[in-house]
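FAQ
Q: What does a multi-component entry look like?
A: The components come first, one per line:
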Amino acid sequence: MKRGIIALLVSVIVLATTAYWFFGTKKSVNVHEILSFGVIIILIGFGIWFVVRRFSAVRSGEPQEDELSKKIVQKSAAWSYYISLYMWVFMIWLKDRVTMKTEEVLGAGILSMAVIFMFCYIFHRLRGVRNE
Amino acid sequence: MNNRIREYRARFDLTQDDLAKRVNVRRETIVFLEKNKYNPSLKLAHDIAVVFGVPIEEIFLFGEE
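Then the predicted structure of the entire assembly, as tokens:
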């Protein structure tokens, strides 16, 4: 339950700060900002789905976490770490070729890490975890 | 590794939910096990074998694909 509440809290904080950033800015929004906003919304959706699953498991008398769900998270984290290393190398390569501010590169990198984790999690949930 | 969980579950007239609750895992884990998408820990394999009252090797068929 504790992890579910933390995930919910993080999702709400990210949603609130994103909404403040997006709607609170006086200047006109560009394509990069709209794209970032869309990705953040997808990630928040993923976070809320994660929390809802945990709460519904508790409600139906199942454990919030069991050995399979732990393994899926662990494997997804390991995979996303490896993939993120290559993503950061690509971002460094990209930074020299495209005019981007350092904070934009960092923001895009952090968002990409979250997206990579989301895809790894979905992949492992669909594929299963076998000791091959 | 294959398993005969579905077969034993039918024999004991247990639903996936019943078995999941008896071995303290999510129903989803039983689904993954029956589809051979997950190899359980020794403890979970033991717990499942205990529910059906048979040795582990009766449920989990090692070395078969």
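Q: Is there any commentary attached?
A: Sometimes. For this entry: The beta strands of chain B are 2-3, 60-61.
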